[in-house]
Amino acid sequence: MNQFYRLYRPATAVPHRNDSTYTEITPCSALRPYIKCFWGSVGPSAGKATAGELIIPDTCMDIIFEVNHSQNSMKSRFVGINNEAFISAGSTEEKDTSSTFGIRFFAWSAAMFSQDSMMGVKNKVFDAQYHYEAIKTALEPILYEITDIHARAREAEKILLRRLDSGRHKPVLDAAIGALLARKGNIWTTSLADEVFLSTRQLERLFAEYTGVSPKQLSSLVRYQYLWHDILTEDSFHPANAVHKYGYTDQSHLLHDFKRYHTLLPAQAKDYALKKADILRESNTPPQE
Questions:
Q1: Could you tell me which residue ranges the HTH araC/xylS-type domain spans (predicted)?
Q2: Which one of 167, 170, 212, 264 is CB 3.0 to 4.6 Å from 269, fit for a cystine?
Q3: Domains of the chain
Q4: Each residue of 260-274: pLDDT tens digit?
């Protein structure tokens, strides 16, 4: 698990976004194998109307804290792994000052900080107390007092390092995830089970408890994320060139699979990512005097 984050960097629908309402903070080295990033608003700000945004399956799970500083109230929720894209709810204009702080776990490491199994969390949202009660209890009071996202991240790191449960570590799961990532998601469940010397049923039970999805579902999501990385980083992405690389039957199969998770075709998805990042950056840039 220690090196997985070097092999695999899942991306959102707008991975280049960095503005006052959303920025990402890399965790300390001890937490990088488990935490993709801390994220949220740079600091408190008055609410304003926002449009919904495309949320894609990123093979991560999040604890999200929404702090209303004007009313001294807070909402916290745990968002399980999802395998469906959706448009987030926008917000209407309001005068309250608020801020957001999130912790984004890799799917296979979320259970290392929880008192509960991840079974049944797919495509669901819970109050954070149902899976992360200790983290919620420790972090919520701090988020009222500390508003800078970098300072929040440092405090969250202290709590997470205390909550990291090495007793829940499963070397056989590490081996399975490692094999899955090495093949960029292009591996059958039976082959994966053979590699780690488990029966298919044992492997499926292990994945359900620790990742919330089956080995087949996680393999498919990982393959999609590797494909999305290629689309984002290659100057001239050609689906035909990726068919063999990722084990698709043909180009039609690749495009259908990508659109199933992203709702857009590759060229449209990249265009959305670039334009949306620019729009958000411009809308959150203070006017020049």
A1: 171-272
A2: 264
A3: 4-165 (no CATH), 171-274 (1.10.10.60)
A4: 999 999 999 999 999
